[in-house]
Amino acid sequence: MSQEIIIQGPNVEFSQGAEAAHHDHEHHEQHFIWKYIFSQDHKVISKQFLITGMIWAIIGALFSVFFRLQLGFPDSTFPIMEKFLGEWAKGGKLSPEFYYALVTMHGTILVFFVLTAGLSGTFSNLLIPLQIGARDMASPFMNMLSYWFFFIASVFMFVSLFVQTGPASGGWTTYPPLSALKEASLGSGTGMDLWLISMALFVVSSLLGGLNYISTVLNMRTKGMTMTRMPLTIWAFFFTAVLGVLSFPVLFSGLVLLIFDRNFGTSFYLSEIFIGGKALPHIGGSAILYQHLFWFLGHPEVYIIMLPGMGMASEVLATNSRKPIFGYFAMIISLVGITLLAFLVWAHHMFVTGMSPFLGSIFVLLTLLIAVPSAVKVFNWLTTMWKGNLRFTPAMLFAMGFVSMFISGGLTGIFLGNSALDIHLHDTYFVIAHFHIVMGVSAFFGMFAGIYHWFPKLYGRFMNNTLGYIHFFITFVGAYLIFWPMHYEGIAGMPRRYYDYSAWESFKQFQSLNGFISIVAIVVFFTQLLFVMNFFLSIFRGRKLTNKNPWGSTTLEWTTPIHPGHGNWPGEIPEVHRWPYDFKDDGHGKDFIPQTVPLREGEEAH
Amino acid sequence: MSAFITVALIVLVFIIIYQIAKASEYTSIIRGEEKVKAQTNRTIAILLVLVFILGMYGIWVCHNYLVDKLLPVSASVQGDAYDSMFNATLVVTGIVFFATQLVLFYFAFRYQSTEKRTSFFFAHSNKLEILWTTVPAIAMASLVAIGLRNWLNLTSEPPKDAQRIEIVGKQFNWIVRYPGKDGELGKRDFRKIDDANNILGLDWTDKHNMDDIIAQNGELHLVVGKPVQLLIGSRDVIHDVGLAHFRMKMDAVPGIVTTMWFTPKYTTTEMKKITGNSNFVYEISCDQMCGKGHYSMRGTIVVQTPEEYNAWMATQQPYYAGNNPSGAADSSATPAAKTPAAKDSTKATVTMR
After folding, report:
1. Which residue among B117, B123, B292 sits closest to A185, beta carbon to beta carbon?
2. Which of A421, B141, B278, B305 is deepest in the core (most CB within 10 A)?
């Protein structure tokens, strides 16, 4: 395997690593556009993904504040909403159409734009080359394209917020016929077309990124970096990419068929429909087909969101416990198990669609099976902390929060994965509580752990710790306050995606609880803004790094300079001699041994 | 103006918090970073324990506050199996929840960094891995076993004497069709739908349709103790028949007939007594996002004694008789003459294909 790569880009062409002339720093001053905008440096692309993701996260979260106001206080008006939303919130009260549009956009934005692109895009890009010892991705150009396809997808989605009939409003899953027929809802007009275009572009972005991550991990590891010496972050990103590459194309095909049904008169998903006062000519399609195609991505998508968090939590927990991750191989095997099973459980979202009950029972079995590798991971994380020497950095707290949330949300999945319970809990607030805790909050905690931990690598400065602690405690407590009571609402059968419950004898008793949840949600929202402020101010005003390995980590990214240039290491790429979790006495008073240190005499490799 | 002041205030508060946080950074440098770090670590460990204890207390408070607001006893025989299975799952997951969260927070406190402590190098143990692979696997296997048994019961063929009633969703209400005296639901075709006088598109050439009774107010009448099979359909988009009190749910998908069956246990009157709520009513909620009126797509169920049910049924008129006063068994309606707008405001003119 070669340690040299040629880095090419418009206006710049230089090779690094082999030539002694490039040892210290780069001599080619790149133009601003090529350095920061159409950059092919994985570190810059990573920042682009992160900041775009953060902007989307604020928009998506703000939407949830708007619809939480409606849910919590259906009888009140909030004139401030009219300032933001204009006609959609006339007199300060959301219209039902726009309420559903907000719910739909909240889901789409957070699932795809923030927790897929913003999370994998940021950390796979940042850490894969740095932790395996590569100068850049296998194809920096494709990597750049991946971001820019995501950017164009973002533009389309953003534009859809401003069309006259509103953005898509059929839920983030956009089930046809609702999403296929303009007569069925306002949001199924232009907004839905833009949604489909945006998502198709998003799939392209995701595939370009994923293929790149896979080939980089397989081909570009530095000398001595065998697969079993890779940090668990890399394993997690690798399987995330595998999941995405194999399942996103299926979503793509589902979306294309939906585009056909909407615009070209085909009947893939449509059959025997009477709407808008007339019977449509479509016969023979199946609305359930879309759900199969959607959830064939939709379920792996959950793990696309979870695995990076798992990887980063493993890394952060081990580093801050000053202890090797427990059961490194078991962690890898459980990742393999989760990845395989992730493809075989999609129909547990469809137990009550009239799907064959026999098929349903197979999916019950496979779904509950996935609890086993998940449990293995949890126990390994807990044992990693056992007899450690725990340093509570904000990153560590978020990694622990990740474990706590993953346990809570994972356990409620055991209810929903069992069809005989799902038949009551399906599409109630129990589902909302379950997936928000496990793939919303938990994944966000993994992301926050990653941001606090690798911020010094991204910007050469620290984020403010005090703000980090405030951020953690309010978010952790707030998330439980929001989602814990929602389980009760779900157990009572309260359906999700309702604009107003006051006409329902069975559900109106939760009104005061909904108000409470909304207030907490608003507090948590502002706390996230505190984080955003901390992030941006720390880029410019944060305490500077004086030591290139501030956390005492063993992995390769901390062997690069504080401000690594394009190419990461000024000289040769270091060689790897040991596994990434040698947190033990190095004989010189330090409690860790970096991967680059050769084995001592008589020392056994892990 | 007030909005501007609010925004300005929020920004101000943020700046103040940031300055305080920044100041704490500087003071920590002045006071000696290592010392401050150790102190912070202790504080955080204590805070984590506090969060855990308060959290457990919060769960208790939350439970007491909400437990009365949950559903009453299951109104269907099948729902009893659901309730006991739910409780079994709750016990299993509850134990795991408390144990693992306790361990997480206990370890955080117990193994917080101190000057003296060094971590114990403990990288793997096959015994432990096997232990916590097999135990969850066994637990899951037993939950799957209970689940599949119940699932097979739920999805089995209904008893022969089950009542068959059709329920059809449309934006945004439920239409119920009873088979009438002959006990058979006649054929229907979506191309024959006419909002004015053939709301479900019944095929008038099918004799079984002549005595079918249609309730457009979304009210479903059932007989207590008698199994009922619902044949579920949709006229437009996907809906879902959600029967929270019966612990049942099934999608209504256009082009497909889905079914579910259950046996009501308590009449509406009995349930009013059980809940102590004189307004109690069994509700049918649409549980699948179906458009802007999704939240208002409400139906009701009236569970009655056989006598009450028969008395009510006797007052119902077949849909055919009400909508074809001339008695002509002609399927095609006369669109222009009707005033469909009165019945369905979303409809323009009726055109048949």
Report:
1. B292
2. A421
